[in-house]
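Lab notebook, page 48
Experiment: co-folding of the full assembly
Goal: obtain a model of how the components sit together before planning crosslinking
Operator: M.T.
Materials (sequences as entered):
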Amino acid sequence: MASGEFSLIARYFDRARTLRRDVETGIGDDCALLAVPEKQWLAISTDTLVGGTHFLSDIDPADLACKALAVNLSDLAAMGADPAWLTLALTLPSVDEAWLQAFSDSLFEQLNYYDMQLIGGDTTRGPLAMTLGIHGYVPAGRALKRSGAKAGDWIYVTGTLGDSAAGLAILQGELSPEKPQDARYLVQRHLRPTPRILQGKALRDLASSAIDISDGLIADLGHILKASDCGARLELEKLPLSHELQQSVTPDQALRWALSGGEDYELCFTAPERNRGALEVALGQTGTPWACIGQMTAAADGLRLIREGQAVTLEWKGYDHFARE
Amino acid sequence: MASGEFSLIARYFDRARTLRRDVETGIGDDCALLAVPEKQWLAISTDTLVGGTHFLSDIDPADLACKALAVNLSDLAAMGADPAWLTLALTLPSVDEAWLQAFSDSLFEQLNYYDMQLIGGDTTRGPLAMTLGIHGYVPAGRALKRSGAKAGDWIYVTGTLGDSAAGLAILQGELSPEKPQDARYLVQRHLRPTPRILQGKALRDLASSAIDISDGLIADLGHILKASDCGARLELEKLPLSHELQQSVTPDQALRWALSGGEDYELCFTAPERNRGALEVALGQTGTPWACIGQMTAAADGLRLIREGQAVTLEWKGYDHFARE
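Observation: model returned without errors.
Model output:
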């Protein structure tokens, strides 16, 4: 089986760089065996990335590994969980050793950064796609959920919005910023988003709800509204936009991408007035900016977009793979 | 988002039929939250099934759900673990409601049978494929591994071997058994294999090693030999063959499929002489036959196939997706 599936998995993915104490058996048996610490809840999420749909087919494999992991880590961040283990089911059209080397090197670099261990996976032949299963811990009872927001809570986002959509437009040749450094920044924000793990942990006990922005602010905030049975007022002037985005597109395009571009992998969260001070201290220590962009209201109000004090109506929605039919 | 991804997931997969007490939050947030009982190890496995590679493209969706779950449950069985939770990442070329209804009905029927809960997933557009992540428990320190076999231990398999390959050949029009009931039996063995969960649990503390037969007996026993640093003598006359298989193919073909056909999802395990009595009692209670097919030897002996007392050489190996290049 010299060029076979098993030696392929072994060669690129059976690396023992990070050995977590909670892993009894990692790769190499029918299942991985894990010892979960007491008084911790396990947080589990899974995401699939399909070539041509979730990433451009000619993407650099090192970028792809970063992005695939970040997309999944972002779900842990949104629960306030600490990353622990990864499973990787990789479907490849053929065995391309240079590709596998670059992909796995990049993946393990990220796993080591986050003190994570790859505990299992599967390699199959087919059109390029991958499904990651991510597992983390959160202290029992302290997870951030979508359902805890109340009318009156403030609405926040970390970082800046819309950069990822601009980066994608640049990669697709639809946008050419004047300054090369702006283009580089926006492309990096698309290819290598930073999962907000530190921010999610800082928000435990302080945020009343949280979600990560994968489908766009309007779509993802919509999930909080639905789960929490609330409405919201969103102040469009307060949406945090990067200098690079503002330099590269019209204000209207920037707003459009900030609201519905998706793939920002920032956190959107809510917190009651009484936690504002503690929240500023906790988030301040993470070194990443955040912005208050609105306030939760009664469910009957729905989601209202406010510009210069006036309610406005916009047409766009979040990205949805099957909604275009 | 009436016909969108999220309502699609909600409509077919957000069913609350089985509500496990260890599930704090199931489908509907960024992650599922799970409370693992004390003194239990978590067993995790993931498998991908790609249309055209792992199943025929025209497979009945109800059969596909059974097979996909069985393939993953079989990994838990091989560790002696109890099933608990499933994640499902489903990639579909389009939204086919009849297909989704049949697939999800069948999946939930199986999940309820095994007292499992679907805790998360992802639906993406692309060529038909799915990745399941399966999670179960095994009492700490009592998992069956591939690495515990010793020279002198007896080698066993549950059920019968080769039926699944015959069933596949029938579906592909390459085999036409004389009796329709034989054909039906073999096809069912291929489409709806029975994961040996009960047998795996019965073997805790009794078997010295175990693996499930997905790639064929020779390939999978080979993994035990490698992990346990042993050789083995396999008595070809002792391989358990179903009456239906023997009625449908030549003895040589039956042997070939029993050794290397794959997808049987029976357990291959080893046990020391001193456990033979306890093993017969424990397995006897499960109602499924099992057979002793050989004995572990020193690593230097390698894997030796014995027919009528003579070592024989055969050419076939287990199925390996990338080995054919």
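Interpretation: Chain B touches chain A through 73 residues (CB under 8 Å).
Next step: discuss with group before ordering constructs.
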